[in-house]
Specification:
about 300 residues, alpha/beta, TIM Barrel, two-stranded antiparallel sheet, 10 helices, globular
């Protein structure tokens, strides 16, 4: 079944539900509502192939925009290529103010298989492929999915810098990096965002969050709901959420938004119902008792 592309009019992003999460300027010029959307789960099993329900995936993307989400994170490796193609099918022509961030740096030999590839020629081909699939003249935020240990970092970053100088990308971000790697990257090119695994139950990247906070670099936590771990019965998060009469996922997202003003959570889902639930977290305010309890969780108390 062919779905007719959406033709959205000008959107007042700050009047919609996702705006309650607050705003952040990526790179100084891209103003986004802090609660975004990640597209990895829109693909098939093993992040491979088309989604089980194509039409629902299209509805999810369109609903995200209706709710005020104007920061969508994707990658050429999701599918591969599937997530980017879905975004264009659902949302092109894009409304003004919608920021689509994509990533490159992986080969995908099969379902659940990821092989780093930071060769400059691969990054260039990936960027040009993403531009075509997304129907863009320029990618606003292009992120290195991983620093490939087989290729000098300066060569990988230099490839992105060249693409930037050619006008094919606007800003550059890194993913799964240490503070030392961020500092090294910033000595070569401006870095405006970092995407590391982080959640209320996985705070191993606390030092990176704090660095990004000081440097005013956007921090994009992937797996912000810890693959469902926050909802497991009996956890501190589940118990605290029950007291507030919200879901554990909503509590986890509200905590991330409270954690730092540079935090840009990108929870993903393949269902509109779940998307609505996630966006409702933007309006959740956490009291001191709840925050203290979640702080104890971080210390293992």
């Amino acid at each position: 079944m062919t779905t007719t592309p959406a033709k959205p009019s000008k959107i007042d992003w700050q009047s919609l539900p996702a705006a309650k999460s607050g705003q952040f300027r990526i790179g100084g010029d891209l103003i986004v509502n802090r609660l975004g959307f990640g597209t990895m789960r829109l693909t098939g099993k093993g992040i491979w192939g088309p989604p089980k329900d194509h039409n629902e995936s299209i509805r999810v993307l369109r609903r995200a925009v209706e709710l005020g989400i104007n920061f969508i994170d994707t990658a050429d490796s999701y599918g591969p290529h599937v997530a980017e193609e879905l975004i264009a099918e659902a949302l092109y022509p894009y409304p003004a103010g919608l920021v689509i961030a994509t990533k490159a740096g992986f080969d995908r030999p099969g379902p659940d298989k990821w092989v780093t590839n930071g060769r400059p020629e691969h990054l260039r081909a990936a960027c040009e492929g993403s531009l075509k699939r997304l129907r863009l003249d320029r990618i606003e935020l292009f992120q290195l999915h991983r620093i490939d240990s087989k290729v000098p970092a300066v060569d990988q970053l230099g490839a992105l810098q060249l693409l930037q100088s050619e006008g094919k990308i606007n800003h550059i971000g890194l993913s799964e990096v240490s503070v030392k790697e961020i500092e090294h990257g910033r000595s070569i090119i401006p870095i405006v965002s970092v995407q590391n695994r982080y959640s209320v139950v996985d705070r191993s990247a606390d030092d990176v969050v704090e660095y990004c906070d000081r440097a005013k670099i956007g921090f994009i936590p992937w797996f912000p709901l810890a693959s469902g771990d926050v909802s497991k019965s009996g956890t501190s998060v589940e118990q605290a959420a029950a007291k507030l009469k919200i879901t554990p996922s909503q509590l986890a997202l509200a905590w991330l938004l409270h954690r730092s003003p540079v935090m840009l959570p990108i929870p993903g889902t393949s269902r509109v119902e779940h998307l609505d639930e996630n966006v409702a977290a933007a309006a959740v305010k956490l009291d001191e008792t709840t925050l203290k309890g979640l702080a104890k969780l971080a210390r293992g108390a």
